């Protein structure tokens, strides 16, 4: 099966990409980053059942891949230079982000292929069977905006839906520390929807999702438009299976596409 998937990837994407320019350092950098490619590996995607369009790939990057990605990010100097904790890039993404975006495309492509070849029951055959539906997977570029965030222990992000100027299909990669991200349905005009989907009593329930280091979240459709996401790292909120999570500095990379 792995060989079959490798051939399939080569057909769809060609051999792993070369760096641009002949410069030696650039070439070395690009070789390192090729380690981000999933060639030869099959990743597991997990659908979060309560939230349509929310997918998690826990083993998206290996520890080695996480370290080389972190050093590429650090070389940008964004997060230390101004001692800021957020850096944004539009348009031409740095090489490492292009590689990351390609790896996401490959991993989703493989999952499409596998779900088709596995003859899933009909109820799973719709768009919802996919971490990204085909129309999002094949748009060009898949992503053209990136945010790198660093959070010190205790720091998080308030509940929000990402701005409407971003298209559907958002990816979040977690590095350096695990955290629990909570999802809650947006209020206002969605009360009917909420009653139908979640039941009256559980309407305000938050759904926790554990984002381990190296994991990738994909949100599209309902998960992107109807659910808020937040990370509360205040004491007492970062619990998983009854245990408080050991909090370290956390870095995340969010990839989106402008409308
Ligand atoms: O840091 C994260 O994991 C989430 C970031 C986020 O939700 C955002 O930038 O919109
Ligand atoms: Fe967000």
TrEMBL record:
InterPro entries: AlkB-like (IPR027450), AlkB-like_sf (IPR037151), ALKBH7-like (IPR032870), Oxoglu/Fe-dep_dioxygenase_dom (IPR005123). GO terms for cellular component: mitochondrial matrix. GO terms for biological process: DNA damage response; fatty acid metabolic process. It comes from the Eukaryota. Pfam families: 2OG-FeII_Oxy_2. Residues 1-29 are annotated as: Disordered. Residues 142-259 form the Fe2OG dioxygenase domain. Belongs to the alkB family. This is Uncharacterized protein P8A3.02c-like isoform X1.
């Amino acid at each position: 099966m792995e060989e079959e998937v490798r051939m399939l990837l080569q057909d769809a994407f060609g051999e792993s990409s070369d760096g641009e320019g002949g410069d030696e350092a650039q070439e070395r950098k690009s070789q390192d980053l090729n380690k981000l490619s999933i060639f030869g590996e099959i990743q597991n995607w997990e659908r979060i059942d309560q939230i349509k369009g929310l997918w998690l790939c826990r083993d998206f990057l290996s520890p080695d891949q996480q370290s080389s990605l972190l050093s590429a990010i650090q070389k940008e100097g964004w997060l230390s230079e101004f001692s800021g904790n957020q850096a944004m890039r539009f348009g031409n993404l740095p090489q490492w982000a292009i590689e990351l975006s390609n790896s996401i495309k490959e991993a989703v492509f493989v999952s499409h292929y596998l779900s088709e070849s596995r003859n899933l029951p009909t109820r799973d055959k719709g768009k919802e069977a996919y971490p990204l539906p085909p129309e999002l997977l094949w748009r060009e570029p898949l992503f053209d905006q990136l945010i790198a965030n660093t959070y010190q222990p205790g720091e998080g992000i308030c509940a929000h839906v990402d701005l409407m100027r971003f298209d559907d299909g958002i990816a979040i990669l977690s590095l350096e520390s695990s955290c629990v991200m909570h999802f809650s349905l947006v209020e206002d005009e969605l009360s009917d929807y909420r009653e139908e989907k979640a039941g009256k009593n559980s309407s305000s329930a938050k759904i926790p999702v554990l984002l381990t280091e190296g994991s990738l979240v994909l949100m599209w459709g309902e998960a992107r438009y109807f659910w808020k996401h937040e990370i509360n790292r205040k004491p007492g909120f970062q619990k998983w299976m009854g245990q408080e999570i050991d909090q370290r500095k956390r870095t995340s990379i969010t990839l989106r596409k402008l409308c």
